[in-house]
Amino acid sequence: MGDGATITFLGTGDAFGSGGRLQTCFHVRTRDSAFLIDCGATACLAMKRAGLTHDDVDAVMLSHYHADHFAGLPFLIIEGRAVGRSGPLAVAGPAGIRERLREAMEVLFPGAGEKMPPFPIEYYEYGDTSAATIAVESSTVTTWPVPHAPATQPHALRIETGGRIIAFSGDTQWNEDLIEVARGADLFICELAGFDGPAGIHLDYPTLLHHRASFDCGQFIVTHMGQAVLDNAATVAAGLNATLAFDGMTVTI
Questions:
Q1: pLDDT of residue 114
Q2: How many other C-beta atoms lie within 10 A of the C-beta of residue 179?
Q3: Domains in the chain and their CATH numbers?
Q4: pLDDT per residue over 59-117, tens digit each?
């Protein structure tokens, strides 16, 4: 059954660092594994602030290919080379993850994309249908394509690990699949970019408030907040019966 999971919210901001927050990155630790959900460009900085090292990351599970969720991975791998990492790193993401990572490394660190790190990387690709399930190390990951920027191949994630279920909306507009993603989860982490009304390719407070009763989950935690959401934090927390995440926050389920 496992012994539960501890989640550290390393980065809870949007792409632009609203409120001075770092970009999306959550660290999950169980008895059998330790991994990141998303790896925004500030992930290495966030890990150091939390006292985490490469020994604390066995895998990285990505929701989509926007930089504030993905661009920290090349830095993590380059640093792994610099500090002498030897253990394998599992990397799970949408289709084409191996090539996407190689291209990103080549852009950010010219020449690096053609070099293999001195430690093995094991790649796992999500399916392209709703509720597609794969095993990543000791976790089971079920994914749903969601409506966001299509070129980023956006997915919501439902991760069973340590005998617990962590659900994550990823970046998305409202869609009914989110109800199923969160169903029975011990923790649902949900993005909320806008406060007053439609937020383009993201969720907004009025929409989430309208559908809040549909979510059958344990803890409900909001992340990826724009400045207007942060400015109205008390209203959002009370209306959604939710916790607003902050950098460094730790939750045990």
A1: 81
A2: 13
A3: 5-252 (3.60.15.10)
A4: 999 999 999 999 999 999 999 999 999 999 999 999 999 999 999 999 999 998 788 78
pLDDT, residue 173, reads: 98
Question: Phi then psi for 202, rounded to 5 degrees?
Answer: -125, 170
DSSP letters spanning the chain: ----EEEEEEE-B-TT-GGGPPPSEEEEEESS-EEEE---TTHHHHHHHTT--GGG-SEEE-S--SHHHHTHHHHHHHHHHHTT--S-EEEEESTTHHHHHHHHHHHHSTTGGGS--SS-EEEEE--SSTTEEEEETTEEEEEEE-SS-GGG--EEEEEEETTEEEEE--S----THHHHHHTT-SEEEEE--BSSS-BTTB-BHHHHHHHGGG---SEEEEESB-HHHHHTHHHHHHHHT-EEP-TTEEEE-
pLDDT band for position 242 (50/70/90)?
A: very high
pTM exceeds 0.90, yes or no: yes
Assess contact for 43 and 10: CB atoms under 8 A: yes
CA angle 75, 81, 84 (to 5 degrees): 135
Give the Cα separation of 23 and 67 in Å (integer): 9
Q: 10 Å Cβ neighbour count for 240?
A: 19
**CB of 199 within 8 A of CB of 208?**
no
Give the model's confidence band at 29: pLDDT under 50 very low, under 70 low, under 90 confident, else very high: very high
